[in-house]
Design goal:
With 505 residues, the chain is of the alpha+beta class.
Amino acid sequence: MTERKSAATGARHYAPVQSRRATHREETHGGKLVAVVIVSIVVVLGLVYGAGVAAFNFLFMPNTTLDGQNVSWKLASTVSSSYAAKVGTYQTQVSVGGLNFAVRASDIGLTFDEAKYEKGTIGQQSSWEWPLRIIGSHELTAQSGATFDAGKLRSLIEDQVNTYNETAQQPTNATFAFNKDTQSYAVVPEKAGTALEVDPVVSAVSAAMEGLPARITVDESTALVQPSVRQDDANLALAVDNANRFLSADIPLTLGGQPAGQVTREQISGWIVLGDDLNATLDQDKLVDWVAKNIGYKFDTINTTRTYTRPDGKQVTVANSGKNNYGWITDEAKLCSDLTAAIESGSTASLEIPTKQKAQSVPDAGGKDWGNRFIDVDVTEQHVRMYDDSGALVWESDCVTGNSSKGYDTPQGVYRLNDYRANGNVELRGKIDPATNEPEYISHVEYWMPFIGNSWAFHDADWRSSFGGAIYQTNGSHGCINLPPAKAAELFNLCKVGDVVIVHA
């Protein structure tokens, strides 16, 4: 004990040393108890945390959905097994634009790896963070353990897309077109279609199949067949400029120096085409077709049936015997070449239609392409008339034409007198008779005015006592036109080489 003196009395007091030591021991014991409790709590918490980590490596946390399905507190192995049971009967519906089709497990050789699926799904919930995540909600996406035959999937999609594309609308490339209002070419923008490309659909469906969803929707804009030429293409703009260069102006056409039509800008526009290389050119097939229909068909009169009104008012149809030697024959190939050169050079000059044979005038609607001067042979009337340059009747006579009963009909058509024309003692010989090896006949005439080679002609026939009527039907000529001698002499003095001869019924 410790001795202490009192300041007032000097008396001695003794302190309780034993009590102070007891208190110290009590404080030490209490501290140890707290430490034990804390350690115990930490251990418990650690055990709980560890247990949670271990549990949530196999068990889904509360408020958890997997691809929209509630899997809270379910074992991943149970979910995986349930999922595996569905794989064998799995099918999904694919939609892209207007195309819809099913993909079945059997179509693509689908198989399933349960372990991979289980690991891929449960691994998303971060079990090490379970104390922080256990209260919230969780939306997980399945990590498929399924595998499939990529070749079979592509083949399936190719078949579906190709069948769909048979009726789908293909995209339209940007091009150019002729504007009638502005009389010029302008760019026409491209247009989207509905046809699909195979590869983008295959890629999108293959990626989506990882989760084996019930429906796969492919963004149509990523799968559409795209136009190869767009309106902002610089080459297209250049093609428009070139096309407009072809449209400098209308080109007048003449035939024999007479107006025969016009090649307009609008017509030219129908011949301009845009090549695969975006080069504007003249389509020669279209040009040839236009020339044939608008030039050849209209102006080629040789060997065609023609109609006209004779000066006395009779409406006449001239048949085509195939022996016609008078009329227009245009040179269509040369005209196509001339037009191409004129258009490409931007020429506006009048263009003469080239010909292989000329007539006297541009044919009218009935095909009449001769002037006022001509010789008219009317087989039905058995009468011949000649009109002069003014259209006046200057000569006429009855005649006898080819014997129709023996097939010697005088060929109908339009001809011209040729330069075999002769007078004097002209000998005529018939065909050689095979039995006698001699001509069928030998005749002599004074006036010979042929119009088909040197075989069919006007000539005098002094062996006949009458002309006209129905003589030709049974006692006609061998095809020539027989005239009274005096009338033949008059005609010979009036006609000349080149005069048009028309033979008709």
